[in-house]
Amino acid sequence: MQVGVVMGGVSNEKGISILTGKEIIENLDKSKYEILPVPIDSKYQLIDRAKCLEFAFLALHGSFGEDGEVQAILEAFQIPYSGSGILASSLCMNKHMSKKIFMGENILTPKWAYISNEKKFNYNELEAINYPLILKPNNGGSSIDIVIVNNKEEFQLALDHLLKLYKGILVEEFIKGQEITCCLLDGRVLPVVSIQHKSEFFDFSSKYKEENTVEEIIELNETLMHKVEAISTKCWDAFNLKVYARIDMIIRDEEVYVLEINTLPGMTKNSLFPKSSKAQGISFCELLDEIIKISIRESNNKI
Predict the structure, then answer these.
(1) Pick from 83, 103, 124: which residue ends a domain?
(2) CATH code where residue 59 lies
(3) Which domain holds residue 252?
(4) Rounded to whole angstroms, how far apart are CA atoms 269 and 285?
């Protein structure tokens, strides 16, 4: 079977996408698949190249990758692809909408406010949220352009800057605690990964450049592990996630807060998802094979 690895894209996470794509190409089982690199730098390129693909392994990150647009194009051409569908991808990419669903499902998440150029901002919206605050692009990823502010002056400067770059900004309470991520494969919860770093939060440098960042499998106490598993499963069902996903969380005072859901998590050898699957006894090559098999099954179920 031919597998096209779609990478690059148009978002500011293009560099990370290329790294993910190269690792996927290197680790796919070449005895099973005819591997076709599909680098794109425009939407029209994907439309042109999608027609000849048998299967699209999505190594894209950010907008036009994780937001449902690519998924919609591939479905229009009836091309099976890796990961969740159009709606789940779109909802998880939109942090503001995700948080509304978390609240509706009684899933604990940090307090927040949403600000955009179209929506007049009122400082009263922040009355229930104490400093420090985190400002982040509503549809961003890879911790790019995330800022921590400690007072009103810093907040206004950061907000003015970010609104020049993005349509919507999420303002979120800063929760200091134990950072973990929970990976799910076909709805099954894999071993939990703990993230320890020197920065104030798990920023871009900590993720991709900081040698002192420690990401390791952790064994939580029974009560906490039960909470994490229950919350992860609830997220999987509420968003109708498919194939695989990664849920980022923070634990504080035995409470588990969900930050966001990644429908196309990074898939380099050093990424969090392969580390979690390896602890489950699933090699990187086997993981990629499982993702393809589950994705094709889900695609067939739509017919």
Answers:
(1) 83
(2) 3.40.50.20
(3) 177-292
(4) 10
Q: Give the integer Cα–Cα distance in Å for 276 and 271.
A: 9
- Residues 209, 168 share a domain: no
- How many CB atoms sit inside 10 A of residue 91's CB? 22
Condensed to tens digits (0 to 9), the pLDDT of residues 4-35 reads: 999 998 887 888 899 999 999 999 999 999 99
pLDDT interval class at 204 (50, 70, 90): very low
89 part of a folded domain: no
pLDDT of residue 228: 97
Q: Is residue 142 part of a domain?
A: yes
Question: How many CA within 13 A on the CB side of residue 213?
Answer: 21
Domain assignment of residue 101, yes or no: no
**What is residue 229's three-state secondary structure?**
helix
Largest separation between any pair of C-alpha atoms in the chain = 60
Could you tell me if 117 and 279 are in contact, meaning their C-beta atoms sit under 8 angstroms apart? no
CA–CA gap between residue 233 and residue 241 (Å, rounded): 10
DSSP assignment of 10-67: SSTTHHHHHHHHHHHHHHS-TTT-EEEEEEESSHHHHHHHHTT-S-EEE---STTTSS
- C-alpha 155/C-alpha 161 separation (Å) is 10
| Encoded amino acid at 100, one letter | K
